[in-house]
């Protein structure tokens, strides 16, 4: 089964309120919302909008997504993590998505790797004290850009508060089989990011400078089952009997239409699988 969320970041360039998004999510058969921390901060002046309010609509916040610093003074990063833990509690979630720095694993020196591990362990200790789990996203140009690097990082940090948000497309981008990657990392995977691309040549569209820009190219972004990565195969390869938490991470145009269509196709895929079981 799939516990499916939309990402509020999909609506970063549109004037859409959270109540509107929640109403849409509930009507589209989604289970929750992945809340971008920038949006959570913007909602501080509306304290009645919180996790209890969402749960009354039959929804939950699957995770809070943000970015922690891996350079500079430790107290600065700890303060940001404290803020994120406070926001997460307000929204009744215990999961905070982070990245493993800003340098590809193959480019990390021994000193870089040691610094990354030490900073992550420090964050994990503090997250655990707050009752939170940090989900490390598999992403290009970070220390978790491949299955091997992600596994090595998890082993080096060696802390129960560190888990994985497996971005399926980015693992495929690294030249790996996403199904094999999932099987390798499965004990630590607590969330999936689902998105697709028309062809490998368009993968740079997901680079931060482009994807966060209102004027960035979206030419290669396509619905989940229309791209180069075979998501039907991936989703059908996930084991039955386990609830998989995932977000439709759509960055292209017409998010309401695309997210609704993708969620319905995932539901049909699951229904067909159950019927043939």
Descriptive report:
The structure is a single chain. The protein is built from eleven helices and ten strands. It is α/β, with parallel strands linked by helices and about 280 residues long. It has one domain: Divalent-metal-dependent TIM barrel enzymes (TIM Barrel, Alpha-Beta Barrel), CATH 3.20.20. The chain has an eight-stranded parallel barrel with strand order 1-2-3-4-5-6-7-10, surrounded by five helices. The mean pLDDT is about 95.
Short structural description:
With 277 residues, the chain is an alpha/beta fold. The chain contains eleven helices and ten strands.
Q: Count the strands?
A: 10
Question: Which regions are unreliable across 5 or more consecutive residues at pLDDT < 50?
Answer: none
What summary fits the major beta sheet?
8 strands, parallel, barrel
Helix content: 40-55%
Outline type: globular
The fraction of residues in strands falls at 15-25%
How do the helices and strands line up, and which of them pair or pack?
Blueprint lengths: L1 E6 L10 H10 L4 E5 H6 L8 H6 L3 E6 L8 H17 L4 E4 L11 H20 L3 E5 L9 H11 L4 E6 H6 L4 H8 L3 E6 L1 E2 L10 H4 L9 E2 L8 H7 L6 E5 L6 H21 L2
Parallel strand pairs: 1-2, 1-10, 2-3, 3-4, 4-5, 5-6, 6-7, 7-10
Antiparallel strand pairs: 8-9
InterPro entries: IolE/XylAMocC-like, Xyl_isomerase-like_sf, Xyl_isomerase-like_TIM-brl
Protein name: 3-dehydroshikimate dehydratase
Organism: Marinimicrobium koreense
